[in-house]
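Help wanted!
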Amino acid sequence: MLSKQEKELIIEIWTRLTPLADRIGAEALLRMFTSYPGTKTYFSHLDITPRSAHLLSHGQKIFLALAEGSKDIANLMTNLAPLQTYHAYQLRIQPNNFKLFSHCMIVTLACFMGDRFTPSSHAAMDKYLSAFSAVLGEKFR
Amino acid sequence: MVEWTAAERRHVEAVWSKIDIDVCGPLALQRCLIVYPWTQRYFGSFGDLSTDAAIVGNPKVAKHGVVALTGLRTALDHMDEIKSTYAALSVLHSEKLHVDPDNFRLLCECLTIVVAGKMGKKLSPEMQAAWQKYLCAVVSALGRQYH
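Answered by r_m:
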């Protein structure tokens, strides 16, 4: 359950960091691939070496989807429907991996924001990413 | 026994060299109590934990943060015998403190976020991976004596 204040915190963070969408998204992915090598299996068709064009473009895509979702959290289920279908029926990503990515996104945000990634920002973001992941995994079975 | 490459040992030592236990210990425990509020159940005797500000200002939380982080550092000098190093602490957490061992993982996640905030770019993906492997080994050892 996200409070009004938490929703505002989340939107503020994504909006402020949007100019760095590709770098932040790429770094979160890279951290995930490094800590959890099993996650690389979903990217055998892409060049996911550091600073590759694929990594930056894919990172940006994910960042922008997360940023967009935060603007209307009450309707995540409706707004994410196409992505739900895509992840469930085409990508078929093992849903536990959403948690691994969320963790690495939070680490990346902490690296970029330093002290400004306060405990309350962290709590709000953790809750948001959990909710997003849960919605994304809804159609898996 | 956990196998460590030379690079992993270096990475773990490098991260610890950046950690001021008196600063990061309190920050990590405060963050855990705020981000995962159910962990407050173990700190009923610590006084006011009712708001984020109360948690951050609570001297018992700060003091205990130092104790916990000091304990996490112990493994650095015993990387090839982590299980035995934490056997007694595991028994304590299980039989006396009755802490759900899954919460150790949460405190360690919060510690990683505190470290990431302090180190920024200097926490490379490889250092993060080695650091997390270290914390996983400690968490596993702490959970071992639960029956």
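OP: Thanks! One thing I noticed: The two ends of chain A are 24 Å apart (CA to CA).
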